[in-house]
Design goal:
elongated, alpha/beta, 2 domains, Rossmann fold, Four Helix Bundle (Hemerythrin (Met), subunit A)
Length: 241
């Protein structure tokens, strides 16, 4: 349970008007749905290219290829969907196939499951429903999971994606945009995220209240100290009260 143990902390909490959440690994398990979706794409690859066996291509190898592509194209201002497509182009090339239409098919299969099979953590909806009457709620994400594809379209008022702003967290620009969308000052925003180096550091840089959602009880980072730490989103209500 988080503790508010100073007059300064109490004053900061009382000023909060809006709350922003990270998406991946905060509201849903991105790692799980990403691997599941790649697995469905891999089934398609082996259907069209039966010579590709388990040793030739794995989910881990597909992740490695996509991350390499993302690093190479980082300065190209491409959407995450475009990067994912190029990842499939490169994946097919690695197994001796250069059919762009097959890469597009794989990307469509991946995105269908990537968005359609997202499962929210059990504490998400109760928390959002509890807080929505008092605060303006939104999403600030380096990812591309749209709330309307996750069943959250009626619960989040604003959405800020890194690919739309042109920078990624921890760049404070994303949080400034969030403040504009929410109609609040930076010190009236509270951000909740699972990453110290992205969400917490970015929120602190702009002067917002930072809350680290540490679901798996990871060790603390000495150089990035969140204002508060919680183990579950259900602790937010107690913190804000």
């Amino acid at each position: 349970m988080p503790h508010v143990n100073s007059i300064n902390q109490i004053d900061r909490i009382r000023r909060i008007k809006a709350i922003s959440f990270d998406g991946d690994m905060t509201l849903w398990d991105f790692e799980a749905v990403m691997r599941h979706s790649l697995g469905r794409a891999l089934v398609e690859i082996r259907k069209f290219l039966p010579h590709v066996g388990p040793v030739d291509l794995t989910i881990d190898r597909m992740i490695e290829i996509r991350n390499t592509v993302a690093g190479e194209l980082k300065s190209k201002s491409l959407s995450l969907e475009q990067i994912r497509l190029e990842g499939f182009v490169r994946t097919l090339h690695s197994v001796g196939n250069d059919q762009h239409d097959l890469a597009e098919h794989l990307s469509a299969i991946y995105l269908k499951h990537r968005f359609g099979d997202i499962e929210l953590y059990p504490d998400v909806l109760p928390t959002l429903d509890c807080l929505s009457a008092r605060y303006v709620l939104g999403l600030v994400s380096n990812g591309n999971s749209y709330p309307d594809r996750c069943g959250l379209q009626d619960r989040l008022t604003y959405v800020v994606f890194a690919q739309d702003v042109g920078v990624e967290k921890p760049d404070p620009a994303l949080f400034r945009v969030a403040c504009e969308e929410a109609g609040c000052a930076p010190d009236e925003l509270l951000h909740v995220g699972d990453s110290l180096r992205a969400g917490v550091a970015g929120a602190k840089a702009v002067g917002a209240v930072s809350v680290w959602l540490n679901r798996s009880s990871e060790p603390k980072c000495l150089d990035i100290v969140p204002d508060f730490e919680i183990r579950t989103l259900l602790e937010l209500q107690a913190l804000l009260n």
